[in-house]
Design brief:
By secondary structure, the chain is of the alpha/beta class. It has 3 helices and 4 strands, in the order H-E-H-E-H-E-E.
């Protein structure tokens, strides 16, 4: 696994490429936070383009950006089981998901 940091969203694809083989081979997962839904959506697109399977969550009460049934089900699973649901290798959240739940998923490698 490569260690490193990035300071701008545009650097994310290169960071993802350095982790891709290890994530897929070892079932690792990642967690990303951004305060803006628009940034989360951009991150989600980048992850998908690199072959990852992200789930992106924000408030269920957001009228402008309503979550899909898939997102709500994943959110409920995380709150109940304290881990990212099977089939997703990245969890992307904003401040609406910052408290009131725990993440004890031992496969989370990149935050």
């Amino acid at each position: 696994m490569n260690d490193g940091t990035f300071s701008h969203l545009n650097q994310l694809p290169e960071v993802l490429k350095s982790y891709k083989g290890d994530f897929k081979a070892y079932g690792k997962k990642g967690l990303f936070f951004s305060s803006k839904i628009s940034t989360l959506v951009k991150m989600e697109k980048m992850l998908i383009e690199e072959g990852f399977s992200p789930i992106t969550l924000w408030s269920k009460n957001n009228v402008e950006n309503q979550m899909t049934d898939e997102q709500v089900a994943a959110r409920d699973y995380i709150i109940e089981h304290n881990e990212i649901p099977e089939g997703y290798d990245f969890l992307l959240i904003n401040q609406a998901m910052r408290e009131g739940w725990n993440l004890n998923d031992m496969n989370v490698e990149l935050i």
